[in-house]
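Section: Multi-chain targets

For targets with more than one molecule, the full set of components is provided together so that the structure can be written out for the assembly as a whole rather than chain by chain. Components appear in the order listed by the source. The example entry contains four components.
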Amino acid sequence: MKAAILGISGYTGMVLLRLLSEHPDVDEIIPVSSSKAGDKILSADPGIGKAVMEKTAASDGCMVDMAHAVKRKPDVVLAALPHLASAAFCDPFYGKSVVIDLSADLRIKDHGLFMKAYKTAPPRPEILEKAAYGLCEIYEKEIKSSDVIANPGCYPTCTLLPVLPLAEKGVIQGKIITNALSGISGAGKKATIGNLYVERTENTCAYLPGQTHRHFTEIKKEISSFDSSLELYFTPHLVPLKRGMHAASAVELKSGVSAEKIDAIFAEYYSDKPFIMLKGSALPETRDVWGSNRCDIGWQVQGNMLFLFSVIDNLVKGASGQAVQNMNIRFGLKESAGLKMYGEL
Amino acid sequence: MKAAILGISGYTGMVLLRLLSEHPDVDEIIPVSSSKAGDKILSADPGIGKAVMEKTAASDGCMVDMAHAVKRKPDVVLAALPHLASAAFCDPFYGKSVVIDLSADLRIKDHGLFMKAYKTAPPRPEILEKAAYGLCEIYEKEIKSSDVIANPGCYPTCTLLPVLPLAEKGVIQGKIITNALSGISGAGKKATIGNLYVERTENTCAYLPGQTHRHFTEIKKEISSFDSSLELYFTPHLVPLKRGMHAASAVELKSGVSAEKIDAIFAEYYSDKPFIMLKGSALPETRDVWGSNRCDIGWQVQGNMLFLFSVIDNLVKGASGQAVQNMNIRFGLKESAGLKMYGEL
Amino acid sequence: MKAAILGISGYTGMVLLRLLSEHPDVDEIIPVSSSKAGDKILSADPGIGKAVMEKTAASDGCMVDMAHAVKRKPDVVLAALPHLASAAFCDPFYGKSVVIDLSADLRIKDHGLFMKAYKTAPPRPEILEKAAYGLCEIYEKEIKSSDVIANPGCYPTCTLLPVLPLAEKGVIQGKIITNALSGISGAGKKATIGNLYVERTENTCAYLPGQTHRHFTEIKKEISSFDSSLELYFTPHLVPLKRGMHAASAVELKSGVSAEKIDAIFAEYYSDKPFIMLKGSALPETRDVWGSNRCDIGWQVQGNMLFLFSVIDNLVKGASGQAVQNMNIRFGLKESAGLKMYGEL
Amino acid sequence: MKAAILGISGYTGMVLLRLLSEHPDVDEIIPVSSSKAGDKILSADPGIGKAVMEKTAASDGCMVDMAHAVKRKPDVVLAALPHLASAAFCDPFYGKSVVIDLSADLRIKDHGLFMKAYKTAPPRPEILEKAAYGLCEIYEKEIKSSDVIANPGCYPTCTLLPVLPLAEKGVIQGKIITNALSGISGAGKKATIGNLYVERTENTCAYLPGQTHRHFTEIKKEISSFDSSLELYFTPHLVPLKRGMHAASAVELKSGVSAEKIDAIFAEYYSDKPFIMLKGSALPETRDVWGSNRCDIGWQVQGNMLFLFSVIDNLVKGASGQAVQNMNIRFGLKESAGLKMYGEL
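Its structure, encoded as tokens over all components, is:
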């Protein structure tokens, strides 16, 4: 298989490069960087290691431009580009390669909602129309048969995986109050004062609470597609982690729904999923999934209240790892190929 | 003034020592450590600095035992000792010195609730009966006239300061959903695997959610004393901070309560308080109060939902700093004497 | 292949378990823990993931005791046990399995030196006598033909890899002044005050400088075996890293030795080694090798002074990864099997 | 006293603001920011707290421009501005106010050396000529009588304090090999990729080793002024600290110099200095001085080698705190006024 990565200098591009450099089914990596075409990958990213040199022999270990990438005819294109730039940038590949877009451009089919979140119309509405929403454990069937896959955001992935089965089964009601904690890499590799080491270490804060964060819209439309009566309030926080995400949701159970019922629903949906670890009443830690593509889920019932806890590595299951998982599913590979099951110590 | 500190080798004892070593009204510090009496403070705690040597000249810069402390007749005793040991340990001082207890022993007057949280009866019920609850901004009057002050816990301080004025004014209703994030020093200076650097850096998790944490009881009884109809669900988290605490609470406003009304309530209660910084709709960061005795509070109204955010340094306003503030209030000193107003960068 | 891991609850045992759980040539893992035999691995170590469950099916996903391990007749035994306990603990396996000992017990053949470093005689002198020193890039030949391999320490691995080729070629002289920085996991998973998060974050210090650290002896004996005229002063430091090690050495070049000569020596020794990345005058960062089995080496000549810089992940190339590399070499597997080439972002 | 701070939005300016906001002898702070004049300080720097509001009542809690600052006729001007901009920016104040410059502009009197380090001629040679080098413990006499004080860099302060007394007494010889570790705030509040949280946490590296760092020149000229025969090799490192600096130097003792002699020299120079803590053979930790203006020094003799260890808070004793100490000395205030003696836990 030949895989092109668009935008290999950002954090999600760097993780894609790492995962594919050791993926057993990928023979050639086409590393696209418009601004650095011609430069050695290893100079730009000294951590990447020798494996990438072998898989990029076709470009002599160098980054390439789009023209070169198109000529190499990749089987799959993984776009790790900024929101509102990504979908259009992929134009040369639609219809020729499978496109997996890590940006938000193809995630929200309702134009009004897209406009609300991104203050502009969706950039490629005709592509958006047919894109599968690549939340792998929920939309496997759609992913298998789609040539364009919109990779979900990290906050939506972490928040939705515990909530959607319960929404679909109709066992919860009223307001979902979610507090999510994100590692700093979620902000991307952007040189801003707010992302400096000195600003973020020994510091934590909430931001854009309730219904004001862009990802609120993405999360809400998914929940609504299963149960439109549920309300959502979503408050993200920054915590001094390099990588990692933790979501805590509180919601009321419908009358008569038992703790055992919740256990059974999770078992039904997830017990055979390689990357979901069900912990029951034990609470997950972000460290348990650091570097892996897992989502660990724990829950507790107290009276009529249900507390849900889920963790992911925001750069892996929350971005690049899930993109590889989507690639694996779409191409009929082993779902876990090239992805780690264990969390780094 | 002569001040005795009981238990100077734990984190709260160490911070008390630092604050009093530069407090303008404290001339003599009596540094009590049962296990290390006779040892030099500066050897046990190399960070403490030369100021403590001057103020402990009476014991030649050494830690002392209880017998010595009693003989020095301190004006105030600050007890930084473990729960269920502290109140009894202070026996020699009741009636002679003002006692400020940083443990939970004297915080919950209802024996049933105390039993629920600590699995045993309160150790000194007769002292408990007359102890003031030292949440300075709320109970100033009681603190001024009491010789025993129960210094509140860090989670209660951070959670209650934004909630109590609203509870008293009767403008909120139903369930308060609180998610609190604590720095690791909140766990104390105990050699456990769970507190190791390698376990806690690059890691975050929730623990004892809903109504299971000990401090839930302390927080709930305070809220109930103003409005017993309010429910509380409190979920603490560990985040990789050395020091710092962040509380986010979501609650419904009663019908007809405007955002302006909330602003007015906070202004009425707190605008003249030296350590409360009202931020309106801006959200506070823990870094802003690191090392200070401040509590910064921000809030946002969305529809009928109110989101409250508050931050403290868990070792200062959440423990030792508030203890000094209690001392200042009780002895008629300047409320901010010896306490910092700024957060360390 | 069947591999037994002795001591899977410490940090090096945990990393061994992770590496072997995804190693393509290991079919069965025998996870030994004397104190926890019978407990589920996944409960004790929630981060390990589902792959370990498949490879430990023989013990139903549980940890086992030594008797069980002996019965399973492992091809290789990886001992992640404390110094002075490890070599004796491996008694049942000598002569039956290949033993790779991660402790210091079999590293120093000179009894006097061993005694100096560890204050006691070596525990298994007859085994020690025939053990290969498993510094893979230097002793590949010995490793291939030995049934007992003493896996080097992290400080020796990081310090020696840049120094030994130069010592062997006789191009440096006089005093080597080494300053090494270690991540906190180097101290092991021990519940001590000194290893607490609050003690180690925002803190750095040197300890046991010059010729006082145990690993000084291990490093010095290796250097001396190539050039006994060289002196060594080695000062370790603790820095707030979870994982990672950085060594900086300053040494005089012999008269007439050019920078090009140094470049040539490194190229001769290391250009075909999969885990050595030669960076020339660029300086390596610990992040570049985080999670990988690499050692990146940079150097600069200024006048007659040579400055050497090397980085490893102390838990991988400095411990468990090198142990797997030794296993790979010894059993004729691909040297990089089951080991990562890239550093985590 | 009236004190103007030039450049209050950088890290050193922010620390100056904090220190002066609680300094007992400073009544008015004139907070200069060319780009933000007219904005509220508290909005730009929410951590600063209410004390700054009282001391900036003259500008209504707002930042001011240079014209305003000149009109207020400050007694002292503390310039926290970039190298090569600072000295010229202070033009309106020379001869009217005492100027304490935290930049490098006035530190190196030898034009050739300045040119070597900064690639340009010194910007105000006539001011440079008469500026005192504000290393307080060494140049107290010059500081007392000078109206322009060049505040030393953090690396020079930390490296020089242990070395200069030994150089002056002539007890060391040959090469001084210094390895220094710096917290990330040393790089200033600049939005660069290299300073991002994700780049610097869990990462360490050396940079500009030997004789290539700018501060090498500043350190070398000071050492040479006491003993020009000493050589210096200085290798700085970045470690994941917000604040803190650690210097480790190795150097040969001259023949016949005993460990006791070294002890005696340090005692003679520093035992009466409020901010120097002599630790003998105990090794200092950066945490011990975090937030304080201290420099803690430890040392060990092994054979004819001397190992020196010193720690400071790079933003306090390494910048803003030493500037306040210089102000205190120059104006005849208590040397420790407004400066902390203890390290934050």
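Chain C has a mean pLDDT of 97.
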